[in-house]
Amino acid sequence: MTQQSSVAPRRRWLWLIFAFTALATVIGWLSTTEDTINISHTEAAPPLPVVSFETVTPQPASISINAFAEVRPRWSAELKAAVSGRITEVTDAALAGSHVEAGNVLIRQENSPYIAEVAQAEQALADARRQLLRAESKTTAARRQYKSRGTQPANELALHLPELRVAKKTVAAAEARLNAARLTLQNATTLAPFSGFITERMVSPGQTVNTGDAMIRLVDDSQLELTVELSRNEWALLQQPVAGRQAQLFAEDNRPLGHADIRQGGGFLDQKSRQYRIFLEISNATESPVLSGDFVRVALPGITIPDALNIPASALTQAGKLWYLDRNSQLQHLMPDVISRMQSRLIIRNPDSQISSWRIATTPLAAFLPGMRVSGREE
Predict the structure, then answer these.
(1) Mean pLDDT score of the chain
(2) pLDDT tens-digit series, residues 15-29
(3) What is the CA 172 to chain-centroid distance, rounded?
(4) Nearest-CA neighbor of 376 among 325, 321, 332?
(5) Are the beta carbons of 305 and 339 closer than 8 angstroms?
(6) How far are the Cα atoms of 274, 316, 334 from residue 322, in angstroms, in the given order?
(7) Torsion, CA 124, CA 127, CA 131, CA 134, rounded to 10
(8) What is the DSSP letter of 233?
(9) Does pLDDT of 3 surpass 70?
(10) Cα separation, 74 vs 97, whole angstroms
(11) How far apart are CA 13 and CA 4, in angstroms?
């Protein structure tokens, strides 16, 4: 047991000595190994980054204020039943999608009861007029009688004047009832109040409707309207007065759609948005490519900025900065005063009237730093 216990520590010491010897050998070999990486030395400076720019000179610019609006018909009505009764006819003009002219017959209702009411009202008027003739005859006879006697009537009753007044009022009331009965009879036939398109029909022949039931929805096609909202800053850039001027209309793909007349604008702020409202109209809607329901871009006439820069919209960063190249081809930036946006261009005020020409970086990068020297390439 004593010999085995003494052999184990010797083996451990032998392994430790062997490990240290191997480690020393590896360290010595690494210290004597030469670095084989070739490093080349040059005195040439690295090339400058290339920045595309556009040369812009200050000049007067007539701006336009752009806003978006939905085109709506001037007149849009839901025609409801003015009288109760069964529907006897729905004309072809009342079908959805049909174009109608003002006065076209759309729906007819059963009118026999209303014809009877007209007849009764005419009879009542005839009776009232007969009573009026009697009262006038009595009054005339009484006046002649007193005149032949050479005396004055004691009062109005002697001349039957109260009866005459009542008879006249009875005739007036009978005439009013007859007019009302005739109007009710006319209301049994629904006519188009203005020209336009039928967008929806809610009734069918044989259906019984009550007064106030919706039957037809009609929208105007001859007069279209738009309403544009502008902020205070945008309002200040408009040509004044705005009423009577024309605004250009564009589709969503910037296709021209003609113009609209500014009917009125300003005078009050919208209670919800706190913005100015401008009202426009398209009078010759039947000849215009604009349709009711279109969403269009409205270009309103603005003032002329005497000292402005017309720059590409891509030159403005998401943070609203504008980068340019100074005389030493070093990058500088500023926060421009954007006045108007026109598709791919921006109108800004000239930041420095002492500079006669600007080299605007068209595609600013996030790596741009103020004072960075670059190589400019004009587009």
Answers:
(1) 87
(2) 777 777 777 776 766
(3) 51
(4) 325
(5) yes
(6) 31, 5, 5
(7) 160
(8) H
(9) no
(10) 18
(11) 15
